[in-house]
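Good morning,

Attaching, inline, the backbone tokens for the sequence recovery test we're adding to the shared suite. The designed sequence is right after.
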């Protein structure tokens, strides 16, 4: 009897999880379906779920109106560049705070985290003026720099958490064998923290890919990523929902595909150290 009750609970839990997942995915599914509708059907009431005239005209219009590949390349370079630089800075910083802490290590970590609580709009004017004076407006280098600095506190915090889970005895054994700090970092610590490094890298890439505030305010055309590409479909005449949905689908498709193929590694890294 107890076994039948357990099976029922498993079935109910599974059904509830699928329902919850479907509700979360519903807005994305609706956006994809809308991208295949005409503008008239996109506003029809009651809304049509599947029984409408399917068309790819919106995707053709988006391709003719905007250079999608140019914006996609900017997103890849900006998100990839900011992630790479953030990891190069964060790995030694997290290592030093995890394995050679001082009295101020905790204060420094809390200070870095507190910077994420400040609204970005609060520093928009000085950042904009600095970018203008140094010729960084609408450049990939400028966006790489600002996104790297914006996500750096989260990257350091995540790596610090992963590194704290690694036994210090292993590092001390490597030091007794004559390993320098550099060799210890590259050949001992990094291979043991691969799940944490991979999940941190993926999360930082996703955050940089989805960043809209700084990309909309600091880029116009040359360095504009896909977030700016989507915003260009908002006009004083109103929103063209079908074309906006087509542009949004094209913009999120690469990151959804990346997340789908790396979900196991991402979950493994995010739960690294959760259970001892």
């Amino acid at each position: 009897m107890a076994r039948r009750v357990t099976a029922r609970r498993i079935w109910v839990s599974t059904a509830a999880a699928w329902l919850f997942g479907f509700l979360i995915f519903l807005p994305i599914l609706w956006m994809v379906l809308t991208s295949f509708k005409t503008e008239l059907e996109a506003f029809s009431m009651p809304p049509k779920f599947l029984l409408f005239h399917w068309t790819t005209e919106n995707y053709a219009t988006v391709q003719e109106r905007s250079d999608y590949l140019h914006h996609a390349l900017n997103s890849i370079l900006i998100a990839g560049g900011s992630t790479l630089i953030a990891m190069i800075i964060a790995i030694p910083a997290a290592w030093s705070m995890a394995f050679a802490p001082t009295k101020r290590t905790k204060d420094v970590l809390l200070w870095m985290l507190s910077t994420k609580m400040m609204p970005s709009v609060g520093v928009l004017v000085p950042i904009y003026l600095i970018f203008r004076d140094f010729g960084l407006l609408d450049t990939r280098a400028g966006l790489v720099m600002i996104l790297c600095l914006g996500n750096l506190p989260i990257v350091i915090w995540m790596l610090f958490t992963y590194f704290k889970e690694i036994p210090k005895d292993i590092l001390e054994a490597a030091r007794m064998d004559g390993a320098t700090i550099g060799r210890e970092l590259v050949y001992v610590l990094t291979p043991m923290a691969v799940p944490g490094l991979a999940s941190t890298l993926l999360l930082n890439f996703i955050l940089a890919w989805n960043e809209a505030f700084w990309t909309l305010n600091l880029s116009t055309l040359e360095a504009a990523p896909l977030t700016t590409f989507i915003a260009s479909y908002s006009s004083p005449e109103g929103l063209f929902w079908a074309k906006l949905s087509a542009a949004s689908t094209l913009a999120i498709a690469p990151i959804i595909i990346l997340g789908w193929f790396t979900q196991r590694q991402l979950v493994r890294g995010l739960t690294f150290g959760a259970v001892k």
